[in-house]
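Per-record layout

source: Wickerhamiella sorbophila
name: Lariat debranching enzyme
length: 297
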Amino acid sequence: MKIAVAGCCHGQLDVMYDIIEQEGQNPDLVLVCGDFEALRDEEDLKSMAAPAKYRVMGDFHKYFRGEKKAPFLTLFIGGNHESSRYLLEKPDGGWVAPNMYFIGYAGAVRFNGVKIGGLSGIYNNKSYTSPRTEKSPFDSSSVHSVNYVRQRDVQKLWLMGRNSIDIMLSHDWPAGIEQHGNLKRLLAKKPYLRNDITNNNFGSPPAMQLLAHLQPKIWCSAHIHIGFTAQYKHGDPNDLVPGARETLFYATDKPYRPNTVVYLDVEATASDGLQPDEKWQKILSLDTLSPDSLEDM
């Protein structure tokens, strides 16, 4: 089974789908790692956290109104530039247009048996432990904070446990993952990252906690607008036993030109398409999260 993974499309869905079709991979599924911008109308546009010059309607409204249909089933998470008014209506995910599905602020689904998880938004230390209380219309603060990762969402994903996720999506990178790839090349392309990396301020600490705990086979992120790969080996870094479990990390660039979309060959274990993940649904039904289950958080 072929899965395409794209980075921040910023509403340019036509361009993204054109690139995928031109590359001839014919994926069974497209995953977008945030900054999707599912803008239906001008009111949605007002709810997007972005400088005025970057606030453009993009293409989604044509898919929402039925003028177009996504040529591939598309799943996405939220980033820090989103149609926050619309996504706030679907905190646990759902269909936003035909063939387009939002995973939720945190979520897990299955596609042909492959377990896919997602964590929307970006990490902000000041908002991390705060409840999600934002409402539309947003003010100058909440228009940003609505896109920040919350501890409760991370805790729910934590309860999924090891081996529960095959492919995990986040918008910003797990903190420290850059140390497991070609850091020299990354800094040559994005020199402004050097200070944050040196001071351990780059990336999302809770995302790295989840990576180490869930140990998915693949983790994909976006946000920085660059392609990057890394191999994160779990367990003792000095353990050279062949076959030690590892997570392959892929950062994806904006899908505006050829060779920016990542294509994954994944073994399907079923043929039932997109389905809810039973364990995730049970977690959503919990009135409280067990402290015993969260003792390591």
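summary: The chain has a mean pLDDT of 95. The longest helix spans residues 13-22.
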